[in-house]
Amino acid sequence: MTYVWPTLQATDARSLIRFLVDAFGFVENVVHGEGDRVDHAQLDWPLGGGIMLGSGSPTWQLPPGTFGAYVVTDDVDKLHERAAAAGAEIVKAPADTDYGSRDFTARDPEGNLWSFGTYRGEPPK
Fold it and tell me: Among 22, 58, 88, 124, which has the highest number of CB atoms less than 10 A from its own CB?
């Protein structure tokens, strides 16, 4: 079960949802709202967890395009190819790090930064 859900707002939430599904492989779980407005959306990540996003709310003030996340993936190169083919702006090409990860960074159409890599973090203490 996931207890931390990164959350972002979008100028065009429905378009961003389509991009995140097509370019990065998130899975649309639920989208609430009518017309162009998205009151709440949950996109699941295939390896666990996910994100929540929407069109904005008076009680949750994050300007669109100010989000950044690191997401674990098993196949960095394949995901990089998918993201580039879908039009993601590649900020940093796939590369190996000195701490044993392989990763790349991309920007979505709203300006958010997404880093994808094989590093799964250190085990809890």
Answer: 88
